[in-house]
Amino acid sequence: MYPPKYLPILVFCLLISCKNTNKTTKSSMISKSKNEFISNLKTNCSCEVDSIKNENTTTCDTTILENKSKLYYQFNCDSIWLTLENKLGEKKIIYSEKENFDNFFQIQWRLKYVLKKEYRKYLLFRSSCPANGPCNFVLIDKSTGKVKKEFGELIYDHDKKLFYDFVLYFSKTHNEIIVNFIDSDRQIKTDINKQDFNSSVPEYQFNKIYYYNDTITLIYNDNKKIIIDTKKYIH
Questions:
Q1: What is the pLDDT of residues 112-127, one digit of tens each?
Q2: How many domains does one find in the chain?
Q3: 173: CATH
Q4: What sign does the CA torsion over 208, 212, 217, 222 have?
Q5: 222 lies in which domain range?
Q6: What is the 3-state secondary structure (H, E, C) of 55-86?
Q7: Which pTM was predicted?
Q8: Does 182 fall in a domain?
Q9: Do residues 147 and 160 lie in contact, with contact meaning Cβ atoms separated by under 8 Å?
């Protein structure tokens, strides 16, 4: 038995011990929860028998969209796929490669859907880029995962890689440049001299693109300009 004068000290020590034990338990629970979370994120994000695929296929980072949907890549030893998951947990695969995965896993950074711009209702992806040639830009409805439109190559500043509320592309006849405001689906068509754009990839002839005070300025062939005042077309 402890003398009565030591009882307050003993009680104090017991309280401290209980608090520390509680903290340790909570810390252990948090650590376990964190590890489980990390483990879940890495599900279907590796090929156990091929380290080269692990290092060269893709990352499996999750992008949280403005509408709380999630966008994430996964892969295994024989395929890669991109999932769009809405806030209700409903999933839709919007890109996948299986048939040619073994041949092309190392260049998925050029072939897969790469998110370039999030709009209010849509997602703009770049995909299908050959070694030296035009890519294909795809517009996906971010609520349904369905393809809204395929543009082919776009006109944009390849140095800044900046995308605006609109996209720019040639008309099918290459005698117009179309400005497409994505969320409003408003289009502006500007006549051009198609003889000025006769390279194999005419979109690459544009050096710089500026957008200021509702005016788009396109610099091409180093010093020529196309100026589009978008205010003139607001109805």
A1: 999 999 999 999 999 9
A2: 1
A3: 2.40.10
A4: negative
A5: 155-235
A6: HHCCCCCEEECCCCCEEEEEECCCCEEEEEEC
A7: 0.79
A8: yes
A9: no
